[in-house]
Design goal:
Blueprint lengths: L1 E6 L2 E4 L4 E9 L6 E7 L6 E7 L4 E3 L7 E6 L4 E6 L8 E9 L6 E4 L3 E6 L1
Parallel strand pairs: 2-11
Antiparallel strand pairs: 1-3, 3-8, 4-5, 4-9, 5-6, 7-8, 9-10, 9-11
């Protein structure tokens, strides 16, 4: 089992920055991919950024060039640096850990952290 706890959300003005953290515990060694998702009211959950064990990253088109995902393996923590925030970035942000190589793949979720962006 993997437990995920997000932190760092809050209220920020448009154009500002926030850094989200996701602290992982449990069988962290089994995790292959870490993701940040977000969900705004009335919208589907959207993949924001991905980082794999090799450090490779991918981003959703709406956040490319503004958001950066990173990881500190010593701290079992993944970060999402969010710059140039826009009102449409407001959402609950969820951390997700995926264990591949088994059938079915295991997916773990945190409870989310709220990001509010004022215009």
């Amino acid at each position: 089992q993997v437990q995920l706890v997000e932190s760092g959300g809050g209220l920020v003005q448009a154009g500002g920055s926030l850094r989200l953290s996701c602290a992982a515990s449990g069988t962290v060694f089994s995790v292959n991919v870490m993701n940040w998702y977000r969900q705004a009211p009335g919208n589907q959950r959207e993949l924001v950024a991905t980082i794999n064990t090799g450090g490779g990253t991918k981003y959703g088109d709406s956040v490319k060039g503004r958001f950066t995902i990173s990881r500190d393996n010593a701290k079992n923590t993944v970060y999402l640096q969010m710059n140039s925030l826009k009102p449409e970035d407001a959402a609950v942000y969820y951390c997700n850990a995926v264990r591949l190589g088994i059938i079915p793949p295991m997916s773990y979720w945190g409870k989310g952290t709220l990001v509010t962006v004022s215009s």
